[in-house]
Known about the structure:
- The chain is α+β, with helices and mostly antiparallel strands.
- It has helices at about 5-10, 15-20, 45-50, 55-70, and strands at about 1-5, 25-30, 30-35.
- The longest helix is centred in the last third of the chain and has 15 residues, at about 55-70.
- Strand 2 (about 25-30) and strand 3 (about 30-35) form a beta hairpin.
- The chain has two domains: about 1-35, YefM-like fold (3-Layer(aba) Sandwich); about 45-70.
- The protein has a three-stranded mixed beta sheet with strand order 1-2-3.
Amino acid sequence: MKEVSLSEIRDDLSRFLREAETREIVITRHGKPAGVLIGFETEEEWFEYRLEHDPRFLRRIEQARNNLRAGHGTRLEDIETD
Length: 82
């Protein structure tokens, strides 16, 4: 993780976006953290990030886990394949 001031980001955003593909960049304002710049090397990484931060998707995962804990679900061993 790297810290960069907001004024530096403004001066060369393109460079920092490229750099953010490999590590997060903490943007500071007056020396204090104000945000994080996260880059994506591929569209798949962007899709995964969106999914991991989508509250609807996270709720569905939690519901599925609760159903499994309650004994509702299908085991992989029980699924027939042709």
